[in-house]
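User: Hey, quick favor. My workstation is busy. Could you predict this chain's structure for me?
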Amino acid sequence: MKNKIYFFISLVLTFLLFSCPPDDDGLISIPEVDRAIQQVVDDSILNNYLETHYYNAGELSQMSSFTINDIVITPLDDDGVLPDPDINTLLIEDVITGSTVYEDTEYDYYYLNLNQGGGEDSPNFSDKVRVNYEGNLLDGEVFDNTFSPVVFDLTAVVAGWGRILPEFNTAEDYYVNSDGTVSYTNPGIGVMFIPSGLAYYSSAAGSIPVYSCLSFKFSCFQMESNDHDLDNVPSHIEDLNGNLDLTDDDTDGDTFYDFVDSDDDNDGTLTIDEDLEPDTDLSVDRDGDGDPTNDIGDGDPTNDDTDGDGIPNYLDVDDTASRKD
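Assistant: No problem, here it is.
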């Protein structure tokens, strides 16, 4: 019997060895699922989840303030009956549906807006944010969470965050506690439910399997406008075609995306120096000469168009004037 088992194992190994294509170091690659096909599957999974899970909406509405730890999402029992309708609400009844195009695929995503946030600012898709969050697989497993606020760049996380966080405002105020921690008043609070295509898609990440739809509870405390190349043009403005993707905007075709290119039109004048408008802020010494009243430029290169052709100087190869001239 053992000889038969050894023979079978040997046969399987031989098959695997000779079925591998050349030059792949013995690894068998699995073709990636077409994004449009996977999105149909994911949307069905998400809608089923939203129809069969509820949250404690009534309890949250009675709280003067709450955190993401107070949000409880629970699956329906097998009978499919919602318990205590005065307290609980099916997710499908309260979620907001959004849509976006990402990687040439149209995606639907869903989120709960549990508190808009009392601050005046909302982050752009490319900004830095200070948040608390908890990430869950749809089976309820927590794969990541924060114990205190963290800061991250929305361009460095899964695409779903950059679509949903801009729908919320930051906190109204904050104060420093005696122990050095910071408390925030009236932050934006929500829960997002995103398809795998706006998450990790075909990549496994830690305990997250491939093609996983995810949910994130989050609180949005603060934001900071990102200017990745320090050219005084905020990164979200360098998304020239408005598709929420900074990696397909390259005005001069030099393989450096505009948001990380200090000379977007490659005319030899740095973008930051193509700011020629009169300086209206007399309290900031932009050129560092000790006199804030003699500076050239208002800190915004996007409103300078010397030849009046409708193209700002920093994107127009015909306009090479520099504030240093």
